[in-house]
Amino acid sequence: MSSIVVGKVLNNNVIIAQHPDQGEVVVIGKGIGFNRKAGESIPSHSVEKMFFLKNIQEQEQYKQLLPQVDEQLIEVINEVILYISSKIDQKLNEHIHIALTDHIAFAIKRLEQNIVIHNPFLFETKEIYPLEYDLAQYAIKLIHKKLGIDLGQDEIGFIALHIHSSLTNQHITDVKMHSELIVDLVQMIETRLAIQLERSSLDYARLLTHLRFAIERVRKGDKVSEPDKLAAILRQEYPSLYHLAMELTQMMEARLQKPVYQAETSYLTMHLHRVVPEGDLTEKS
């Protein structure tokens, strides 16, 4: 029967242990460190809830972070991560333990100091990452229920980006940059066409989704095909919208520092036509 051997108890919910297959690991689970002693063996099958931080650098970062964070908060965050894992069909990047713990602990500290940070991308985050937003909403509600701390609606969007970062194995900086890029693309559309897009409309939601996946395709280098002569037809029928679509893809190319295929311009033109029912509007400076 395989077992883990306690190396060091960090607190009631986290221990450093020696795993028979994985070597030294950080094992996280509710009450797993309570009354444990170094050298004590714990049968692996008896540990119902645990995570492994196998990366040495991740382990060290987590060890340094833990003494700075309230133990009850660590327990709640671990419960949140377990919930997230139960709702998805893929493996979370183990860095979420560090990223989410650090972010939420800092958010609580800001709240205690009456420092409010507005989230300008909240609506777009909810539309672009609906699953991550729902999971983040659960996290906010659980923190409120267990700790009596209300982090507010804005924080849902920030946590959702951390969850998306873990799901896609992207650095949180890149995830935030992509979200900002989408907002800037929308602002360019509104500026060039001198219109205000209806945020609650289905076509706006479709536009955001299209921009999200277009950015994903560019990031991964995925090529998208288009029907023959589609670009020529769109250039002729909707010259201003096609030109705007070219500007938008140029912005994507510059910010992502990767080439954007021609087909993206054509499909973006079609989405622009959806959100601008009048069709080919005259651009206003």
From TrEMBL:
Matching entries from Pfam families are given as: CAT_RBD (PF03123), PRD (PF00874)
Matches recorded under SMART domains:
CAT_RBD
Query: Keywords, A to Z?
Result: Repeat
Disulfide bond as a keyword of this entry, yes or no, is: no
* InterPro entries in the record: BglG_antiterminators, CAT_RNA-bd_dom, CAT_RNA-bd_dom_sf, PRD, PRD_sf, Transcrpt_antitermin_CS
Which PROSITE patterns does the record match to this protein?
Answer: PRD_1, PRD_2
On whether Repeat is a keyword of this UniProt record, the answer is yes
* Residue intervals of the PRD domain: 68-173, 174-282
Q: Give the UniProt family note.
A: Belongs to the transcriptional antiterminator BglG family. GlcT subfamily.
**Entry-linked PANTHER family:** CRYPTIC BETA-GLUCOSIDE BGL OPERON ANTITERMINATOR, PROTEIN GLCT
NCBIfam families linked to this entry = antiterm_GlcT
For this entry, the protein name equals: Transcriptional antiterminator
Q: Which organism is it from?
A: Paenibacillus shirakamiensis
- Lineage of the source organism? Bacteria, Bacillati, Bacillota, Bacilli, Bacillales
